Write the structure tokens for this entry.
Amino acid sequence: MAASATSWATRRGIGWWALAFWIFMLVLPLMGSAFPSESFDYYMFMGQSMMVYAIAVLGLNLLTGFNGQISLGHGAFFALGAYTAAILMIDFGWPYWATIPVVAIVCFGAGFLFGFPALKLESHYLALATFTLAIAVPQLLKHKSIAGWTGGVSGLVLEKPDPPFGLPISPDQFLFYFCLLMAMILFWAAFNLLRGRSGRAMMAIRDHGMAAGTMGIDTSLYKTITFGISALYTGIAGALSAITVAYVAPDSFALPLSIAFLVGLVVGGIGSLPGCLIGGAFLVLVQNWSQSLSDVLKETFSLQYDVPSWAIYGVLLLLLMYVMPTGIAGGVLRLRGAIAGRLRRVETVRSKPLVLQSEGEKH
Amino acid sequence: MNKTSNLLTRRKTLLAAAGMALAAPSIVTSARAENKYGPGVSDTEIKIGNTNPYSGNASAYGANGRAASAYFRMINEQGGINGRKINYISLDDGYSPPKTVELTRQLVERDGVLLLHAPLGTACNTAIHHYMNQKKVPQLFVATGASKWGDPAHNPWTMGWQPDYHTEGVIYAKHALANVKDPKIAILRQNDDMGVDYLEGFRQGLGSVAEKFIVETATYEVTDPTIDSQMLQLKNTGANVFYNITTPKFAAQAIKKAAEIGWKPAHYLVNVAASLGATLRPAGMENCQGIITAFYTKDPVDPRWASSPDFVTWKAWMEKYNAGGNIADGSNVTGYANAFTMAHVLRACGDNLTRENVMHEAASLKNVEIPMLLPGIKLNTSATNFYPIQAVNMARIEGDHWAMFGELISASQG
Amino acid sequence: MELLLQQIASGLTSGAIYACVALGLVMIYVSTDHINFAQGEMAMFSTYIAWALIQAGVSYWVAFGATMVIAFAGGLLIQRFILKPLEHAPVLALVVCFIALLSIFNSMAGVIWSFTVKQFPSPFPKGDLTGAGLVSYHQIGVVGVTVVMLGLLTCFFRFTTLGLAMRAAAQNASSARLMGVRVSWMLALGWGMAAAIGAVAGMLVAPIVFLDPNMMTGILTYGFAAALVGGIGNPGGAVIGGFVVGVLENLVGTYIIGNELKLSFALVIIVGVLLLKPAGLFGRVNVKRV
């Protein structure tokens, strides 16, 4: 059995571990039914948040990690997705699941259009342009001309969906499955995209745009479409966030959100699909860790003042970057390589504007 | 194949999470026959949750949460409430509503708190409003002045505390109408819920003449470096009334700028920014003369309270338990008085510490006096009245302090 | 018409603030080829040090000088001890480090000095030039100091060997090293100078916007835009960029779109300009060799 599953998986280029991971995720919510507990729903909610962030980071990774375009403003697409879903649900009475395709189209369109000015801007200038998006979107959402749709400064309160068909699971278990389904579809699609011709073209543009152009790759087209797909991913993550949190407000999508995606991307591993999952989990867990660490420090040394958890967060980030400058995914890879005694070529190229080893295509 | 091994990390995390879930303590519902306990309560402890912005743009408000923590630390050192120590878990939501939801669920479902005390911020409370009422967990004495918190018919598990912004706005409008001839009103407003609530109350107070009298409304974002441009716009309208709906930092900038450009309208400053220490002294007292606000707490640096017994107690508490806090910051007063109210309710619950009974006691306050509120202000609630503090007193800056004038104005919502 | 003049004057003075911050960004960019997102928080922290010195009874100018020295040393140490180990790390890893520094400085300032706003003294006389509150002496002072700093920096880069060595180290580290430039120390020096410039910016900004741990977060956005619109490698461009951003923001807010969207709209205009002039108004286009 196991052998045939492995060969099935390898034939499709999926690792045994990936398969095991997704199966584990599928089984996980059932544990709540087997061993009921008040806090299980909370862990389900955390799981939902991790997947939401993982998808958002994946969107950013497609753009930055695999195509070499930087964005400090992906929170804007996240907000666009969240509000599109919320407005469809509230003003048009759509069911939550039906909003996803519309969100995908709207966000792809927005990203694709933004991809055109992005073509002309490089590195720092593109950073500023995307930064502009991150600043403009929360302000636009509050603007009086569209406050009738967006709820203005107070945002929109949504109804949390119940499990369909009278399934004997809690709403949070159900939403976990819903997020998981979306995550599986989106990761699967990204995996296939990157493995194929388009993926190679995307990465060729990242590694050497001019050379890629000479090889006959339509770099402009690829770059704008990548921007669209990236926005689509992050937008769907936003819609899922609106559905699971059941509330959208301009304060939810301020600049720190875009920065968080970037941190998740770098910590997880630029240009790595599993890295997105790690980054998503990191974004949810790190603040709890910092908080606990702060409490521990305060008690251990019986300090008069709190050690601010954000200072601890900062120190954690610094340490992570020292130990694993290519992110946790890169770090684990390097460690594995070292252990296996065949050091892989994971060192970074200094002259390149971004990082980047191309995981997907490495042999 | 190599990349997939990275998934291990995440899998372990989730395994750990699942393990924790299984190991979570089962919730004690009743310990002794005569004692009734809700979640988070035992013979020795009452667990209370809170969220506050300790980071980000709104971090100045974090002083509220720190003050409440410090207050309960004092209560614990004095032996707790009816012999039970307060375990006050206060978490940083950075003023981000999704984070508030996550932390609230952590507090309610994982940590199993009895109730949430004074979560801060309108948007953050809105995000958990529905959840708390669905779960039937008390969301008590929220630290925001929006008017929607006192709605027992629809949301019987949520209660406000401070006088609401809307009513405060009405009071300023009435005062301006009565005291300024031919008012031309210019408004500076923070672009958020607080700003909207204050503005709508004000418009309602003006009534039908609102459109005629309000000549200009300028907004700013909390991320704006300065509001100089807005102040120039407002002055240029020739307005003789200035309604200043800002938070302390921007209020200080506005007051200073108004003085610099020689604009001297009748100046109404909202209560959230009326702290002498946090706003007016930094702006320069010479620039503040004549500014009007509505007050319900004692300003900690107002010399006239220096010898009142509750102030002396408060100051001693600040020095002993909240030494890191700024003595001039009004948040340390509201955080303290709010936590005092919570302690009062828990004490009244006796040994019946169920969520239902906590709400019942919170809705049964009769003329309760709270330290550091203005003389004469008493807390009253009932099954239909979820606005504990309903009175304010108008005050004007004279010299180095707020001089009260007029009588206590009831801010009853009716 | 009067309002227009007032808005322009007010825009120029906030522009001077943005220019100051932009200068610090340019300084680090020219010497290390990075954009330092922690620049604003470093400046804020330095300003608190100055505030603490003044509270302790030190006279303004002594505190001013001491703070510059402390900031210089601090910037130098940050480069040597925190960033040097990451010399070969990917750029985005460095960006994450800057974000880490930003949260450390911001939260530490909050714990040490609390989040309540504080008044910060101005070295310039009170009152203003016109008598109508149009241009205060402090605002003129800010513009003056910015221009002087710009002059000094330009001379430093143009006419001193050290300045030349720093530029060389940033632009082509290996060639510079071959020429005998101690590259890694040049980078540290750049950080030190940028931190000192940031400290000056902070001390000039604080009397206008009041001192608090979040003082620079909004300003950094504007400084970033200013530096880019002027051409990130060009100190003079950054200063002019600062003035452009300041005036543009005020005019857009007053006359075109209202205050709610003025920052967004101003940024959109700037991005529009960058589309036409991809290296900024005064930047030089780097010719890439393949």
